[in-house]
Amino acid sequence: MSEPELINLLPAGVALSWGLAPASTRGPKPGMSVPQIVTAAMAIADEGGLAAVSMKSVADRLGFTAMSLYRYLSSKEDLLILMLDAGFGPVPEKIAAAQGWRARCRAWSRAVYLGILERPWLADIPIGGAPMTYFQMRWLESALQALAETPLSGAEKLNTALTLSSLAMANARLTRDMRQGQGQDGAADVGRRFEEALLGLLPLGDFPELAPLVRGNAFSDGDDDEHEHFEFAMELVLDGVAHRVDASGAAG
């Protein structure tokens, strides 16, 4: 397949992430570049969230008009695709350095989770399909390499990677939203207020499983570790993967 044919198959933002889209020859000599535009957009998102990013706000930061950006990007959607790709960036080397498939998967999942918390606006970018941008594919390749030594089938490895990615992204979004909701209070303080409210509500109905948990301070009994739920969920998934790995090895 020729490069022009490949470019025609891909969304413009995806093609740009691979360096495939040809530079425009229309208009005056370019005064900026796609990487400059993406960097400016990410800086705006870091400061004010994804809602603050528009073609106009990016152009203003760069000292150009909004219309001039369309010489480089066909739409804001393409900009968001490139922001998502650059926001995750290269895969940390420590993932491949971890010993054993489980340690590598754990390091990979934590890197996705913490990467989103470092740039919370990443969780607000709509996912329009399977990962196709350059760095997204590098992250997927890293997850598959983490599982390479296992007897899992190719489909099982791919589904494991996608499950861990979904888990990390969902939990990062939850942690981010909890941070915003609790303000200066710790998770334990929020949990205690939640329990106090529930203690007043539970007599209104029959909650034989929930009521003992609330009375036992299950929502506030902890060390205020906001990552506890993610760590628990990740290990639960990895336990399931380990069971599948053991079963596949025995069958082989």
TrEMBL record:
Coiled coil start-end: none
Alphabetic keyword roster: DNA-binding, Transcription, Transcription regulation
GO biological process: negative regulation of DNA-templated transcription
Domain HTH tetR-type positions: 31-91
GO molecular function, one term: transcription cis-regulatory region binding
The UniProt record lists the keyword 4Fe-4S: no
DNA-binding region: 54-73
SUPFAM superfamilies associated with the record: Homeodomain-like (SSF46689), Tetracyclin repressor-like, C-terminal domain (SSF48498)
Protein known as: AcrR family transcriptional regulator
